[in-house]
Predict the structure.
Amino acid sequence: MRLIFIRHGDPDYERDSLTERGWREAEALAARVSEWKVDKFYCSPLGRARDTASLSLKLMGREAEIKDWLKEFYISVTDPQTGGERIPWDLMPAYWTNQPLLYDKDRWIEHPFMRTGPVGEEYARVAAGLDGILAENGYRRKDRYYVTEAGNQRTLVFFCHLGVQFVMLSHLFGVSAPIMWQNFFVAPTSVTELVTEERIRGEACFRCKRLGDVSHLLARGIEPSDSGFFCEIFGK
């Protein structure tokens, strides 16, 4: 079975939609998605994700199921360095790399910084939502892997956001979410593909075959957006 996670196009955050560039990205993406045999589409309720999905869905004559837990992982926490409110990622390297607990795949949510907001509760909600969909499709979580009575070759597509995508990958891979948030990046409309690997009958793991692929943009001569990637800003 394939899980395909797609980040929304270049965002206009003020209007919760897409920029002109984002719409061009979504158009290029739609041409790619329309070539897939997709069994089910899922989408975040936020405008920028729904707008991105709309062109693919219209081209294919399909609809997506809206899942509230696919919205961006905007949980308010207290910044350990400034005391202000912020989201739980994009921390400064001198701070987070010296916090061993943030590297722990099971206990990172116990870090005092993460406990200043409902990070653990929301992480569990996203994980439960994803596992519920997988169970509906024949893959039931057991410990840190999945069991299945009969594997399948279905394709499920999720239109969502950078932060929540890494939460789902963290859950599927058994990796600390802060490690995913701080060390990985996926550009707008990028495609991340996971495929089940069943080396022992009835036991499956999801293995990443591509992460943040933007070949559909490059084929159209569109330079991928860096939205969400923090380039050097010192001295400003």
Remarks:
- Residues 103 and 179 are 7 Å apart (CA to CA).
- The chain has a mean pLDDT of 96.
